[in-house]
Every structure is written in structure tokens, then in C-alpha cells.
Amino acid sequence: MNVSSVKGSMSISSSTSTWKAGDTISDQFPAGLRVLVVDDDPTCLMILEKMLIACLYKVTKCNRAETALSKLRENKNGYDIVLSDVHMPDMDGFKLLEHIGLEMDLPVIMMSADDGKQVVMKGVTHGACDYLIKPVRIEALKNIWQHVVRKRKNEWKEFEQSGSVEEGDRQPKQSDDADYSSSANEGNWKGSKKRKDEEEETDERDDTSTLKKPRVVWSVELHQQFVAAVNQLGIDKAVPKKILELMNVPGLTRENVASHLQKYRLYLRRLSGVSQHQSNLSTIISAQDPTFGSLSSLSGLDLQTLAATGQLPAQSLARLQAAGLGRATAKSGIPITLVDQRNIFSFENPKLRFGEGQQQHMTNKQQVNLLHGIPTTMEPKQLVSLRHAAQSIGNMNMQVPPHGAQNSQNNPLLMQMGQQQQQSRGQILVDSTINHAPRLSSSMGQPILSNGIATNVSSRNGIPENIRAPGYSQTPSMLNFPVNHASELPGNSFALGSTPGVSILTSKGAFQEDVNSEIKGSGGLMPSYDVFNDLNQHKPQSWELQNVGMAFDTSQHSNSLQGNLDLTQSALGQQGFSSGQMNGHNRSAAVANKAMFSTGDVKELGSAQNVNQHLNNLLVDNTIRIKSERVCDTSPANIFPDHFGQDDLMSALLKQQESVASSENEFDFDGYSMNNIPV
Amino acid sequence: MESKHVHEQIAAMRQSFFNEEVLNKNFSQLEQLEGKDNPNFVEEVFTMYLRDSIAFLETIEEAMKTIPIDSIKVDSILHQLKGSSASVGANKVLKEVNKTRQVLGKGNLERTKASILELRKEYDSFKAKLEPYFQLKQANSMAQEK
């Protein structure tokens, strides 16, 4: 394509050129931007459509979230950006946000008549690119293309970073941007075929730009090979070069593997973080199973969390924390196990602190509160792990984006997350906790967990910058990541089982293990964490947290959801607690958060009243606990399908996500875990 | 001449809406979206809005009669109404919606009911003002086409 060459100077050019739809539009960018707008109110829908057309965009409108999702699924590359209302009858906008982040990794902008801080925060934490207040002005719509560009750019950058070492390995088949647009949509392993085609296309188009690198489509098979190789090497020793050798895939470059590894690690981290929450509560001991398997218990939760992608993080965190609180006392024993298990824990503790700090940073107070409020016996580690999870999730998103194609399995999750969380992953996590907390009490099932990930809100918290750098925070995807993997993991193996810290996910799948081990062993994690940290503005802290989270995960091998949930909860609780200890202000923050939750959620949920009460009574723990328990019940069923094929995983994930919607419990729990991660 | 007169009349009506704050700037935004290929855009939007909001209001009124009152549902509908009213620029209606939500949020059912009555009144008044405006516009444009 000439377009790409013409625009070679601009990173976006490749993206524009990659708009599969038409190469010709790139010159007119942003005209022709393919927008999908979802709003149940016909009046608003009509007005929005009109405005978007006036901006010269190509508009598709839906009045139901389900319709929108199916449209997106049918035509993964058919849209560049999604505009969705928050308040919809059939599905919560944040849930949709999660789905999209998980499956398609498209930038999503949330809209609402509500301009309450909590809701906006929720958007941020769930990974939304932006948040518009109704009535939406046309000026606001004129700029939405920036999110598309940014996302692509970030993806590309990530790709660049990971593959920069060996540029010559393979001529970039496609610029990241191009990949981004195309692969992002596919965002998952399934799309590998398509990707390959796209890649070839882009090859022709972007063969010269050094910046542009061909995007490798990480098909399910390829990813499995990758995971097998990583497992074989051991997470600690899994270096791209060796992995590449083991995989023995012609045409695959070290760069490709490196970036994919990065994403994978983030994913694992995220899983471990989430699972930590859950597993902390239940079975820290199983920490040995690095695999995402730990998700088994968590998976239900994670999935949900992931599903929520934007929503879960905050919610899960909150929930987890709440759960943690509730269970803290019950599971005092768990922390110990965790500690024993993981070396990481040792440094998790310090991280916890950081995590807390970060949390505060992120949500400023809300996060802290959560942790704080949770009088868990869980050590700070748990808290850290939570953070970790949160962070990892965030990181994962970031790192993943460029390789949306690569991690088909993970990508959907990651992508989603990343997309949405460009801005502040941490926030998402935090938000989710906060937001979710109240929700938890009121409606277990609020699948809407509006993943705070709707972090699309542009850098409200200031973290966005950081997040963006790595490549748009995709918290949602991150969250999802584990989930997907969870199901897949089992298949993969627990090779790493013994890796401490890795196992948190309790054997969810090789992936988990790999992830865990990777996380633990490899310093590579650091980078990802760093990215995340930046977001949180507590670099060192976040990193630590991440590690902690990881450690946590491993320890949580909890094989049963229950266990995980419990663990998480307790972990959360503890973390919260420990955090509190660490940071005096956490406590107040926690309290504040609770209050905030109650108020914020009240409005949102409607059952806010209940929530408020819960919160006010500090019954969050209880509610969360209940929720988590409920989640456990449900999630396992959903989460652990016996088949962990990628496709199955995906569908399971999707199902879970959907079920999340239906089963509040699950959702809550997940959200909780996510939330717990101190941001 | 006639059309000019009608034109002025229409303009005057429109201006009065702004003066009285029945409409706000969002309405102007909508007008800007109107163009040659969709000359009746604003009217279409308003027709849709009026139709949907009456349905909302009726649902709310029904919900207020049930015992116990499903305040979550009511709030959810109010939220929707808020969004659409804001989008079309129905200023006073929007204000009433916000007020009602606030009162509902506080849990004061009696005041909520009263507020809903006010909201309904505001809506009816809004409809009564806008409909003739659009009719006049429609008639005018048709006349002009001739």
C-alpha cells in the first residue's frame, strides 16, 4: 500500500493503512473511522449517529449491547472504535467494555448522563479510553479518533520495544499499527489465520519501515508451542532465544517471542494477582501451580474479572478485599502458607507497602481503604499480590497490546484490558475495587462490574501516561488474560507447578504456570511491572507489588475456586490490612473508599441502599465474602471446563463473562480480586 | 410575505424558548446537525424524544404506585430520561429530572412523588410548546417548497 509508505513517517500511518476496510481512507483520516455506537435510548442514538456522520465517520448503531457484541464478533476488523452508553438494560456498559476489551481489543469510549466521579472512575478502571458526559457534544466526538491512533501507536511501540533487539530478524510483516488495527480486532488466537493474511498484506505494505515490525499472529497452536517451550525451560529460564529454539517455528523472530513473552508474563502476573486474591483465601498452598490453573478457583473469578475487563478490576479488587476482610480472620493460616511458599513473599511485603502507596496513588484513597479496611490476617504480601494482580493486569495490557495477535488467547483479554485502560491501570484496579465493593454487597452479580477498566477515561488519574507508554493499559484484557489462560492452562501443565509463586493460579493451566514462573523467575517481569508502576506512579512499588502478586498467585494454587476465592479474600483482607499498617493513611483511605463506594454505587446500583448499608457497616467483608463464596460456586462450574482448548477457553471465558453477568456472585468475586490489588 | 411572516414567527418562538430556558444550547447543536439531506432531523429527534419520554414518565408513575416502590427502577428510568433530555436540550425537563433523582436518592417518597408530578407538568408544558413550533416549521417549509 502506498498509503503506508506515504505515511511512513507517522506511526499511525501504518495503522490507518491497516484499516482493512480501505487503504484509501488513510489519507483522509480520521474520516471514515468506523464507529460502532451503542445506546439503548433511541433519541440519543439518533443524535449520536447524526453527529458522528457529521464528523465524517462511518457509523453503525445498535441499541442493545448484545447486538453490538455480535456485530463486533462477526466482523472483528470492521470497527475501529466503540462508543457505548453505560446504562443499558440488557447489559451493563462496563460489562460490554470488558467483553470488547477481551475479545476485540478495540478502544471503547463510555458515555453517560452521569458525571459522578465514581462512575467516571469506573470507566477508567475498566479500561475505557474515554468517558463522555451526556449530552455529548459534537466537538467531543470529533476527537475520538485519537484513541484509535493512540492505541495503535502503543501497540506498535510495544512491539517495537520487544522486538527492537533484532530488527533484522524478520522484516516486519506488518507495522504494529497495521497489526493493531487488524489483529487487535481479532485479538485472539483464533484470529491467527486472519492475521497471517493480514501480515502478509502488511508485509507488502510496510516492508521498509524499521519501526514497523511484522506482527506475528499468535495462533492457538503457536501459543501452545510457546507455552510448552516456556514450561520446558522453566519460567525463570525462559528467554526468548531459547524459546525460539525450542519452538522451532520458521519465520518466527526472537523479537516476536520476546514481546509475546512479555505479554505472557503480564498475563501470568495478572492471573496470579487475581488468583492471589482468591487463592489467598482458599489455598495459598497450592501456590506451586503457577499455571493459570489456579484460576480454577479464581478462574471463575478471574474470568469474571477479566470479563469485566474494565469492570472487574475495580470490582474484583473491591470484592476481593471485601472478601478478604471477611475472611481475613478465617484464613489467618493462609498467609502463612503463602509466606512459606514463596520467596517472593518476602519481597512482596515491601511491595505491599508500595502497592498500597500506589493504590493511593491511583485511586487515592479508595484503594487504600480497601486494603485497609480488610482486617485480614493476610500478610501484606497478599495485598501486594493483589496489587500485583492489578498491576500485572495493567501491565499485561500494556504489553500485550502490540501483540494483540500474538496472544490470541490472551489478547482478547489483554487487548480489552489494554484498550480500556490506557490510562490508568492502577486506577482501574483501584476503582474496580472501590466501585465494586459497594456493588458486591448490593448485587453480587452485578456483572456490570463496570470494570473500572473503563479506564478509557482519559488520564483522569494521571496514570494514563504511564500506562499508555507501554501500550495502552488494557486492564480489561489483563484480567481476562488469566481467565482465558486458566482454562487453557490445565492443558498446558503444571510443569512449573513447583515454581513458587507461579503456582498461585493453582494449576489452571500451563499458562499459569508459565506465567508464574516467568513472573517469578525472570526479571523480565520487572519491566512490565515498571510500566505498570509508572502508571501507578510508584514505580518501585508497583513492581514490587506485582511480584508480590505473583508470589501470591503461586501460593494460591488453590485448586478449588472456593479456595482461591477464600484466599483472595483473605489475601485481600490481609493486604488491605497490612497495607493499612504500612500506610497509616490507607486506613482512612479505606474507610473513605467504602464510603465512597456506598455513595457512588448507591446511585449506580440502585440497590445502593443496600450497598451503603453494607459499606457503612463495614459489612463489606461479609457481603464480599458471601459474594465470593457464591462466586466460587458458580465460577468453578463456568471456569473450569474440562477442555481447555483455546477455543474452549475462549468460549468458556466468554460464557463466563456472560455468566458473570448473570451470576453476580461470580462477578463480584472476581471484581473483588481485582480490586483488592492495591493500586 | 406570508412565509416571511411565518418565518419571523418561528424565529420568535424559538428565541422565546431560549429566553425562558426551556431549551438550552444542545438544541442549537441539533439544529446544526440538520442539513439539506435531513431537513427534519430536529423534528424527528424531538418526536422520538417526546414519545419515549412519555413512556418513561408513565412507567415511573406506575412504579410509584406499587408498594413497595422499586426505587432502583425508577432511578434507572430517570437516568435514561436525564440522558435523552440533556441530549435534546430540554432544559427545564432536565432540571426536574435531576431534582427528582435527588429527592428519590434521599429516600423521601412523598417528596419524590411530588417531584414527579412537577416533572410531568414540565414535560407536558415542554411538549405543548415545542409541538406547535415544529408544526409551524413544517408548514412553513412546505409552503416554501411550493
TrEMBL record, chain A:
The keyword Protein biosynthesis does not apply. Residues 34-149 form the Response regulatory domain. The modification 4-aspartylphosphate is found at D85. Residues 157-210 are annotated as: Disordered. It comes from the Eukaryota. The keyword Ribosomal protein does not apply. Keywords: Activator, Cytokinin signaling pathway, DNA-binding, Nucleus, Phosphoprotein, Transcription, Transcription regulation, Two-component regulatory system. Residues 167-176 have a biased composition (Basic and acidic residues). Gene3D superfamilies: 3.40.50.2300, Homeodomain-like (1.10.10.60). It comes from Gossypium arboreum (Tree cotton). PROSITE patterns: HTH_MYB, RESPONSE_REGULATORY. Residues 212-269 form the HTH myb-type domain. Transcriptional activator that binds specific DNA sequence. InterPro entries: ARR-like, CheY-like_superfamily, Homeodomain-like_sf, Myb_dom, Myb_dom_plants, Response_reg_B-typ_pln, SANT/Myb, Sig_transdc_resp-reg_receiver. It is found in: Nucleus. Belongs to the ARR family. Type-B subfamily. This is Two-component response regulator. It holds the Pfam family Myb_DNA-binding.
UniProtKB/TrEMBL annotation, chain B:
It comes from the Eukaryota. Keywords: Cytokinin signaling pathway, Phosphoprotein, Two-component regulatory system. Signal peptide: none annotated. Gene3D superfamilies: HPT domain. It is found in: Cytoplasm, Cytosol; Nucleus. InterPro entries: AHP1-5/YPD1, HPT_dom_sf, Sig_transdc_His_kin_Hpt_dom. Histidine-containing phosphotransfer domain (HPt) contains an active histidine that mediates the phosphotransfer. PANTHER family: HISTIDINE CONTAINING PHOSPHOTRANSFER PROTEIN (PTHR28242:SF41), PHOSPHORELAY INTERMEDIATE PROTEIN YPD1 (PTHR28242). This is Histidine-containing phosphotransfer protein. It comes from Gossypium arboreum (Tree cotton).
